[in-house]
């Protein structure tokens, strides 16, 4: 099997531009906007609770086209840095945000500072090599003073790899690696319940708005019943303990 270069894959993919280049290629721009809008709303609520001081410094690690970087800038955070391997993706960011071109596993030397909050949304499960994945988490921890928010899918059991640019790891493995660098999981905020699950994948294509509304209702129910482990995607909050 030929070696898959995930760095070059994302550099090439982001040259196409638009939300679909960093989102779900199988879905329309409208459906991707529904996904991203829900995650953004969950992020902003978490920010209000955990990092209310707008003077806090924030790093968006693996920022892509800067969807979340720009959302936080619009919310009043001015000490924003967006870091990504794709210079072209970062160039699409319209807000006056500092931009750094570097992969997660070697970004520390390029950044040269630490941050109150580090975001890493929909990035870690796109790192294929386990050693690189572990180094990326080490770097996230080294550049964070207090909080790390990550977003993604955290299955209880490792599924088969159906696409070459995705490799899931369990939540327990994330917890173990972050704990080894002095961080403890303090919260999980589900953002998607149906995404990536059959037959909902097809319903999202046919009836995106209606399926999204159903997804939101299931999220409310799951959150109320503490069934976050059944969510297909979530924001996980880690806090420094040492």
Task: Pick out its properties.
7 strands, globular
Q: Would you kindly provide a written description of the structure presented here, covering whatever features stand out?
A:
The chain starts with 5 loop residues before the first helix and ends with a strand. It has 9 helices and 7 strands. The mean pLDDT is 88. Strands 3-2-1-4-5-7-6 form a 7-stranded mixed sheet, sandwiched between helices. Helix 8 crosses helix 9. By secondary structure, it is an alpha/beta fold. The protein has helices spanning 6-14, 29-50, 67-74, 87-91, 107-111, 130-142, 171-179, 200-206, 208-224, and strands spanning 58-61, 80-84, 98-101, 115-121, 144-152, 183-192, 233-240.
Helix content: 25-40%
By DSSP (H or I, 4+ residues per run), the number of helices equals 9
Tally of extended strands? 7
Query: Main β-sheet, in a few words?
Result: 7 strands, mixed
Along the chain, the helix and strand elements come as HHEHEHEHEHEHEHHE
Mean pLDDT equals 88
Shape, please? globular
How many angstroms separate the termini?
A: 42 Å
Q: Approximately how much beta-strand content do the residues carry? A: 15-25%
What would you call the structural class? alpha/beta
Strand order of the largest sheet: 3-2-1-4-5-7-6
Instruction: Give unreliable regions as ranges.
Output: none
Please state the CA-atom Rg, rounded to the nearest Å: 17 Å
